[in-house]
Amino acid sequence: MSRFIRELYKDFKSYMPGEQPKDRKYLKLNTNESPFPPAPEVYQAMRDADMEQMRLYPDPTGSKLKGKLAQLYKVQPGNIFLSNGSDDILNFAFMAWNDSADTLVIPDVTYSFYEVAAKLHEVNYEIKPLKEDLTVDWQGYIGIGKNLILPNPNAPTGIALTRVQIEAIVNSNPDNVIVIDEAYAGFGAESAVSLTVKYDNLLVVQTFSKSRSFAGGRLGFAVGDEALIQDLTKMQYSTNPYAVNAMSLILAEAAVDADLYYQENLQSIIESREYTAERLRELGFAVLPSKANFLYIKLEGFGGRELYERLKERGVLVRHFAKPRIDDYIRVTIGTKPQMDELIAVMSEVIG
């Protein structure tokens, strides 16, 4: 880093994305990408796109896509916010709703970007531990009187809260913003989107990356009260008003139109997840109950780092987080059933 960087950032630890090595062909189960391609309608939309229009700025409001999403989720277009990936939305949320007198609550085992963003924006925050079984202590959030961010399902555990539990949290903290990060909700968790029409302090964040095979397209969206959406828009227009590129808007519109295709893919991943969980248990692994497109697993006698390295040596990439309480675990993305059979075969070899 240069000698000009602000003092605040000299020892700053930024978020580390999952590795994308190119040195060999890997079975890539480390970044929770979909194993399925985008819908045929998305390919057709790309072929039909008027490339001459790429010389123009995209629609900063994304009005056409907002309309389609609003219809799909049974809300109004004014309840939809679009951005360049859901991480951008989380970033804007940290900027918009956390004054110096506020305290934001973050779970201790969760998506590490939250803590990074809090430090980046100098937000006061406190870490609330998960229970011993790595479930969210949802009753501990009842009436806590602080802004909250909760992923549902949680990452990296994959464990989900019910909609009833989320509503209890939101209802008991009416003067605080509750952000529910539903990046993985499509894989079996109960979405809280329907609650946004009832509570003006609830923002639900989703992404096209996982469930709609669009990680490379970088498109996230949020659903919430129109006033919350206006807050996010103010943050966005103060940083990058043309946040979503024109091609992503076009392809995302086609993806929403092809929702049935993606729902079928989601069901295939869910079935593959349950199959893989059972096979891993047969090998002796402890497997957390997941409602996401990944499994969080550990094996007695093996450290998480050791499993990660042995699998990588054999061409299988998984994710390991070297943190207290979870150092023995690895996170495994769910792919197709043949990919999972390949994982099981390599895992059997690794553990002898």
UniProtKB/TrEMBL annotation:
SUPFAM superfamilies: PLP-dependent transferases. The modification N6-(pyridoxal phosphate)lysine is found at residue 210. It catalyses: L-histidinol phosphate + 2-oxoglutarate = 3-(imidazol-4-yl)-2-oxopropyl phosphate + L-glutamate. CDD domains: AAT_like. Residues 25-345 form the Aminotransferase class I/classII large domain. Its cofactor is pyridoxal 5'-phosphate. Its EC number is 2.6.1.9. One of its GO terms (biological process) is L-histidine biosynthetic process. It is an enzyme of class 2 (transferase). Gene3D superfamilies: Aspartate Aminotransferase, domain 1, Type I PLP-dependent aspartate aminotransferase-like (Major domain). Pfam families: Aminotran_1_2. GO terms for molecular function: histidinol-phosphate transaminase activity; pyridoxal phosphate binding. Pathway: Amino-acid biosynthesis; L-histidine biosynthesis; L-histidine from 5-phospho-alpha-D-ribose 1-diphosphate: step 7/9. Homodimer. Belongs to the class-II pyridoxal-phosphate-dependent aminotransferase family. Histidinol-phosphate aminotransferase subfamily. PANTHER family: HISTIDINOL-PHOSPHATE AMINOTRANSFERASE (PTHR43643:SF3), HISTIDINOL-PHOSPHATE AMINOTRANSFERASE 2 (PTHR43643). This is Histidinol-phosphate aminotransferase. The lineage of its organism: Bacteria, Bacillati, Bacillota, Clostridia, Peptostreptococcales. The gene is hisC.
